[in-house]
Amino acid sequence: MANRDAAAPLIIRRVTKVEGGHHGGAWKVAYADFVTAMMAFFLLMWLLNATSEEQRKGIADYFDPALPVSRTSAGGTGMLSGESIFSRDRLAAMHDSGHKRRVDDPPPDETATSDERRAPSDPPTGTADTPAPDAEADAARAAAQAEADLERRIAAALSAMDDATVRRHFRLRVTPEGLVIEIVDLSERPLFDAGSAEPSAVLHTLLGILVPLIADTANDIALVGHTDALPFGSGAPFTNWELSADRANAARRLVTAQGLPAARIVRVSGLADTDPFDADPKAPQNRRIAVVMLREGRR
User: Fold this and answer.
1) Euclidean distance between CA atoms 106 and 238, whole angstroms
2) How far is residue 208's CA from residue 95's CA, in Å, rounded to a whole number?
3) d(CA 91, CA 157)
4) Rounded distance, CA 96 to CA 173, Å?
5) What pLDDT, on the 0 to 100 scale, is given for residue 90?
6) What b/e string do you get for 178-197 counting C-beta neighbours within 10 Å, with b at 16 or more?
7) Domain ranges in the chain?
8) Residue pair 169/206 in contact by the 8 Å Cβ criterion
9) Neighbours of 88 (CB within 10 A)
10) pTM of the model
11) Which residues are within 8 A (CB) of 189 and not within 5 positions of it... i.e. 6 or more apart?
């Protein structure tokens, strides 16, 4: 019996523990998402508590895709201050980021004063050489109001005219330089003879309408000539660059002859076909004269 037991095989049982498979760590991902969301929530709550209404407006303007960052300067004159003439409650309310506006659009609401925006505990800053932020904001609002008033006057003058074709020649838009009044060509009513800088009777008439409207403003003025993309003959010494500059100079002579002081015209230039008005490079609207009512310091 003892010998038989000694010859019996030895059996070892090994227990294999089965883990939870790929479900074992899924809760960690969900927990990490939860922690991240809570961190973002508390960061938002802290930001709302630590900033003023003006600063929140500056942050909102900075991240608004409708307001280009390069033109808002990260929200204004101070850190997160939101003081910019392109923030929503100023010129951005007048136009669509520099795109063409209809002449009958209503002007922005400029009734808010700087005292209403500044908290009583905020002391005025600035020196004699560097104006306070409120002074800069007041100047920006005054410039915006002047531009809006000029647009209204031009729109009213055009609306009062019996000839609807005349209104089609004018386009208004706001740019960082100031209000741009563009007089565009129409295929049936050209501003100049083809390939020439000799102004037509149509341009005489249109500038005669515009000059009295801008004569009593204080803005410096730039005149810019534009052409379409139709080239001159191969090897010709005269190109669209010379043509656009000559047309801008012809417009300068016309406006001064009609009573605009020559000293107010500070820049005359030609851009050829590099800044088209219409997507079609040969469209007649690309042949135009732009009258830019420059803001202060934008020569």
Assistant:
1) 44
2) 26
3) 23
4) 9
5) 39
6) bbbbbbbbeeebbbbeeeeb
7) 25-88, 103-294
8) yes
9) 16
10) 0.54
11) 165, 169, 200, 202
Query: 101 pairs with which residues across the strands?
Result: 172
Q: In whole angstroms, give the CA distance from residue 273 to residue 63.
A: 33
Which residue stretches of the chain have pLDDT < 50?
67-100, 102, 104, 108, 110-123
**Helix/strand/coil (H/E/C) assignment for every residue in the chain:** CHHHHHHCCCCCCCCCCCCCHHHHHHHHHHHHHHHHHHHHHHHHHHHHHHCCHHHHHHHHHHHCCCCCHHHHHHHCCCCCCCCCCCCCCCHHHCCCCCCCECCCCCCCCCCCCHHHHCCCCCCCCCCCCCCCHHHHHHHHHHHHHHHHHHHHHHHHHHHCCCCHHHHHCEEEEEECCEEEEEEECECCECCECCCCCCECHHHHHHHHHHHHHHCCCCCCEEEEEECCCCCCCCCCCCCHHHHHHHHHHHHHHHHHHCCCCHHHEEEEEECCCCCCCCCCCCCHHHCEEEEEEECCCCC
CA dihedral 260, 262, 263, 268 (to 10 degrees): 110
Give me the half-sphere count of Cα atoms (radius 13 Å) on the Cβ side of residue 26: 5
The CATH classification of domain 103-294, taken from the options 3.80.10.10, 3.90.660.10, 3.40.50.10860, 3.30.1330.60: 3.30.1330.60
Length of the chain in terms of residues written? 299
pLDDT of residue 73: 44
Taking the alpha carbons of 211, 148, 221, 172 in that order, is the dihedral positive or negative? negative
